[in-house]
Amino acid sequence: MRRPDAGFSLIEIAIAAGVFVVLALGAFEAVRLLAQGVPQLRARSSAYASLERLGAQLRAEARSASAIWTSSLSAGTAADGCVQLDFYGGDAAGPAFWSYRAFPNHAASGAVPGDALFRAAGTAPIAACDAAHPGDVALRGLRAAPQLAAIPPQQLAAHQDPYLAVADSPFLAATIPATAPVALGVAGPSGTPVAGGNATIELRLDTAAASRVVDLVAGTFPGSFTAVLHYTCTERCDVGHDDGTAKTLTTCAIGWQTAWSQRVTWNDFSSNPDGSLSAPSGWFIAGTFVFTYSGTRADGGTDTLVRTAAATNWDAARDYGTSPPDRNAPDGSLAGSFAPWDVRSEPGAAWYADFLPYVASGERAALAAEKQRCDAVAAQGTAGGFYANG
Known about the structure:
Elements: H1 10-64, E1 67-72, E2 83-91, E3 94-102, E4 117-122, E5 136-139, E6 147-151, E7 182-187, E8 193-196, E9 200-206, E10 211-216, H2 235-238, E11 251-265, E12 270-271, E13 277-278, E14 281-296, E15 302-312, H3 316-319, H4 348-355, H5 361-383
Antiparallel strand pairs: 1-2, 2-3, 3-4, 4-5, 6-9, 7-8, 9-10, 11-14, 12-13, 14-15
């Protein structure tokens, strides 16, 4: 029998040491394999995060876009063939175009890598598949060309998720009224008008790390309702234009063009202190007031608009054959009485002020309205810029 105070035998120690070495080697290998996989995990996490950021960016840009369309659905086999997704938006600063595109037929190591998704932007349409202007890299590591599909609204209920093969929009009704795309007044890359509508653009991206499907709908697209806007015009937009072009009117000048004038005297003489006689006299005058509106266009050129208003102090229905006609104005008043001055050489504004009280009643309202418009245009033009459309 072993004695109670006996220690471990050499064999027991050797077995224990062997077990420890095996466990230590196993643990070391596990740690080594784990450390070896850290860069891959980091790369995968970074690629996953890049996809998430790009998806969020695409959705945000879609909300600010007026139209989303596809210039190129398939890259084909051409060297510079591409897949291109286009956006359009506009505000007070003017139109904005931007595109996402990939050139899968390029080498991954080329100047325009074939595994990258590029974003190009500008104030003019982005030409389809223009490799000379690739833009900035939005995503690297594509395993295949992005897949694009346009889904009309009435087909959304039947559309399936490309991964799960189930209904993509389970809460949509079986039929959805289609809203016709609305032309937005700008031309696209091919010269055809850009139209905004509520079709869905589906974009699928596949990388070594993950895959994403993003459904994009223009955030400011025309809907199936009509909004009626009423604008209140100032005189500067109410002044009217000689054509349909935009005008910037900031000044107005008044001129006078005489058509005819005739001096008349009356036989109700009066005695002068020296014993001579004086006969009252005045003028019957007809002509045209000329209102010249002008302003400077954005390109530095001059816009000019000329409007006229006829004016005469001869009222044939009352004055013809009367000896003498009533001479009360100003402005006691019978418009049409003869003017007591020959003031045809006065500046236009001064002549207007002198002559208006004598203008025939049928012409006075239109002349006064044009003068008010002229004064308002000048006042508003001095106060600040106003862009009036014709």
